[in-house]
Amino acid sequence: MIEALFLLLTAAAPQAVADPLAAAKAGKLQCANPNVEKKTCFSLTSYKVNSDGSFVTTTTVMVRPQPVVTMEVKSAGTIKDGALCAPILTSDFEAASLQVDGKPADPAMASPIRAQVVTSIAPLAGKMGCTREVPEGAMSRAEVMLDGVARPELSQRLLWVKPGDGYKLGL
Predict the structure, then answer these.
(1) C-alpha dist (Å) from residue 69 to 4, 22, 93, 105, 168
(2) Is 75 helix (H, G, I), strand (E, B) or coil?
(3) Residues 6+ apart with CB under 8 A from 165
(4) H helices of 4-62, where?
(5) End-to-end CA separation in angstroms for the chain
(6) Count of structural domains within the chain
(7) Which residue range forms the structural domain that includes residue 147?
(8) Which controlled-vocabulary keywords does the entry list (predicted)?
(9) Nearest-angstrom CA–CA distance, 155 and 68
(10) 9: helix, coil or strand?
(11) What pLDDT score was predicted for residue 18?
(12) Alpha-helical regions (H) of the chain
């Protein structure tokens, strides 16, 4: 689960789309591993697209369902060969904010969770993560590459949603 966090920071749009950030520019959020019936997502990512084509993501991911622990991670990336790419930086996860049941986590709780996440992503740290969405019906699947090597085990289903569609974090 934790290894997939970096994927959420570098998700892309369909291969056939000329602008892989078109949905983000339209104000949509990217919902990872959606449950359409419950309108829940493992994570929700928003994008801020810069004038030079680079972007900054803000991803809120569910770390634990009970109590509900979420982590908000920011990351920066660029488009390369039609994929959205970003380096996997330990510092992004060290700077992440944590909430418990919707309230900021106190340092005593946040510190061990953050340390666990940083330890879990250590094998990925410093690698360039790139993703490209491949359409699959009404959703898409993220194809992941780390330093140019395909990592199909890190694939996730993705769905672009409007903020008003009612999607929230959950299983």
Answers:
(1) 16, 31, 15, 8, 13
(2) strand
(3) 39
(4) 5-9, 22-25
(5) 13
(6) 1
(7) 2-169
(8) Signal
(9) 24
(10) helix
(11) 61
(12) 5-9, 22-25, 90-94, 107-121
Token pair recorded at residue 133:
């969405």
Residue 155: CB atoms within 10 A of its CB come to 16
Distances in Å between the Cα of 87 and the Cα atoms of 4, 41, 94, 108, 147 are: 14, 24, 15, 29, 9
Q: Which tens digit of pLDDT belongs to each residue from 22-50?
A: 999 999 999 999 999 999 999 999 999 99
Type of residue found at 9: L
Q: How confident is the model at residue 20 (pLDDT cuts 50, 70, 90)?
A: confident
The one-letter amino acid at 93? F
**Around 142, how many Cα atoms within 13 Å sit in the side-chain half-sphere?**
33
Residues linked to residue 43 through DSSP beta bridges, in sequence order: 32, 61
Record the tokens describing residue 136, joined without a space.
Answer: 């699959």
Average pLDDT, the chain: 89
> Which DSSP letter does residue 105 get?
P
C-alpha distances out from residue 90 to 119, 124, 160, 165, 166, Å: 9, 9, 27, 32, 32
| Contact residues for 9 (Cβ-Cβ < 8 A; gap 6+) | 45, 57, 59, 73, 75, 77, 86, 88, 92, 129
Res 6: pLDDT: 44
